[in-house]
Amino acid sequence: MTSGSTAAQPSADEAEGTPPDSGDAAQEEEFQYRDESRLQAGGQMTTTTMARRLPVLVRRSLRMAWQVDRGATAGLLACQIGTGVLAALGLFAVTGTLTALISSGDITDRVREAAPQLAVIAGAAGLRALLGVTVTWLTGRLRPVLARAAEVSMVEAALGAEAAANNKPGYNDQYDIADRGAQVTPDLVEEAQDVLAATATLAAGATVLTVIHPLLLPLLLVACLPQAAAYVRAARVVYLAGLETSGRRRMLHKLRWHMSYMESSEEMRACLAGPFLLDRYRRLAVSVNVSEREAANTGAWMGLAGAAAGGVASAAVWATLLWLLVSGRMDLAAGGGAVFALQTATGSVRGIINGGARLVRTGWYVQDWQNFIDNAHGQAMVTCRGSEVLPAPPERFEVRNVIYRYDGAEKDSLAGVSLKVRRGEIVALVGENGSGKTTLSRLICGLLLPTFGEVAWDHKTTARLEPWEAWKHVAVAPQRFTYLPLTLRDNVTLGQDDTSDAALMAACEASGAADMLPDLRSGLDTLLTSEWFGGHQLSGGQWQRVILTRAFHRRASLLVMDEPTAALDARAEHHVFTGLRDLAKDRAILLITHRLANVAVADRIVVLDQGRLVQEGTYAQLTREPGLFRTLWELEQRTGGAPSPT
Ligand SMILES: Nc1ncnc2c1ncn2[C@@H]1O[C@H](COP(=O)(O)OP(=O)(O)OP(=O)(O)O)[C@@H](O)[C@H]1O
Ligand SMILES: [Mg+2]
């Protein structure tokens, strides 16, 4: 392991971009992107598939834009069509001007004849500039709305999916890649606009070219194909590199987050984790840089080959034009117009190729975004569960012979567990770390559906219930809770109906959160984070009181408390446990805790061992009979109790 001082700086080799040694390569292996089907699909994209996909992508981008801002989308379309029409007008006017000026006769007459055409050229150029400014304004208006709309669709899809989907292999990678897709959604629209504009200008140039000589346009198009193929290949290389490095880049993002954000900032210092993680970051960054640099080099070579092919193609077209003039197949006046039209058309074709290649690359990203949404919909709760709504708050919660295995896990976390809890009852769930307590609580709440067996609320299995309606009947104080950067009131109520001070204060009294109110500048409406101005940072135990307040405030039939007092001081813990019996009057309470002295409050205690239910009984029974509970309880008596003063 490198020392702290050397870890802070990359070695000369790393700085040069040399791939890390084999040990580091093994670490990177963990973060590799493994969705072979997506990599293969990307690898198989050709110019023909690109040509076929372009209209689909343009349509999709327009549909998305239309959904979020009809005015701006219609305005943009009108501008593009206007640009095309003005380009055609301008071109025809140029041809007319050249014809008039080159024709024989008095120069004053020729200029007078050309004057109206010149006015059209100037007018068309001025209007095109105006349309260009309008396009910039409308695009600026559309961009942020479109990106936010794409993000919201992702979050909606993610929230609508089963919580268990998070465990599916590749799901989080897919989310990350999709997020990039959401960010570039506005690019899709802009690039589609560019391609449309170039196509409109090409249409104008093409008309003029075809009128002048029918050979010129097909020749121009055929000549540009090699360049198009090279550009698409370059775009594909860059896209695939992005896909392959996505797992590593996600890790980089996580490392950056842990090293810089306030939640982990102290640990980073006290555990000397900063230099260690920074070293890891640098090494991983080097490996990503190497992959991306290789892709950039390959892309550049392909672009160079494409540009060379484009140059040769242009030369061929110009040579043909020269031959047409020299051989007398085209007169000089038409030749002048052809030069201008050819230049415009060549520029437009290049614009289509460049914009098209970018559009396809962005299209792949946006496809990734769409894939995630489709995948999340495939795992949507609406497709996995029923839509029944309980007529009244449930009285009994029952787990019947349940087996549960997390996706990707090698063994069952619960193996044939049955448990009942009724309103008015407190059931305690105990067992060693990893024995399945939290998993069982997730199942009884209907957050997870069992792999085998069933969970029923008043005889209705949770799989048949409409989940969001069902969760109105449960309140959870989870073991690992989320600090939301919201006010105390919002943190507790979270959009619930009863946001009155009276209801809030009752819950604060029960959890002990009321004690900290005098320190909060704006009382219930204090922002609970110092990451923003005016916010207040709570201690770990104070946060746990807020989480308990949230659970108590919901008047749900089932209250799950998973290690609810782990961070509380003795007085606060005592306060919560003495109030529990009162709370249980109209609730079923499932209490999970390692402090076995606290489970004396429960009517029944259920003991889990490696996913199996091994004991059940009252506190008095289980402390007397031999078994896991008694073993753990005796250990707690020996190590947990405060020694008597000697
Ligand atoms: N999201 C998950 N994905 C995969 N496996 C998981 C997940 N959550 C838990 N497990 C596994 O399921 C088993 C039971 O975990 P669970 O969290 O239910 O234990 P627990 O009894 O609550 O432990 P603790 O006392 O440490 O909180 C463990 O082996 C754990 O590794
Ligand atoms: Mg747990």
UniProtKB/TrEMBL annotation:
Enumerate the subcellular locations listed in this protein's record, separating them with semicolons. Answer: Cell membrane
Recorded hits in InterPro entries, A to Z, give: AAA+_ATPase, ABC1_TM_sf, ABC_transporter-like_ATP-bd, P-loop_NTPase, Type_1_exporter
Where in the numbering of this chain does the ABC transporter domain appear?
A: 397-635
Keyword ATP-binding (UniProt): yes
Could you name the Gene Ontology cellular component terms for this entry? plasma membrane
Query: Region Disordered: what ranges?
Result: 1-45
Alphabetical UniProt keywords:
ATP-binding, Membrane, Nucleotide-binding, Transmembrane, Transmembrane helix
Q: Which GO terms describe its molecular function?
A: ABC-type oligopeptide transporter activity; ATP binding; ATP hydrolysis activity
What Pfam families would the database entry show?
A: ABC_tran
Q: What is this protein called?
A: ATP-binding cassette, subfamily B
Taxonomy of origin reads:
Bacteria, Bacillati, Actinomycetota, Actinomycetes, Kitasatosporales
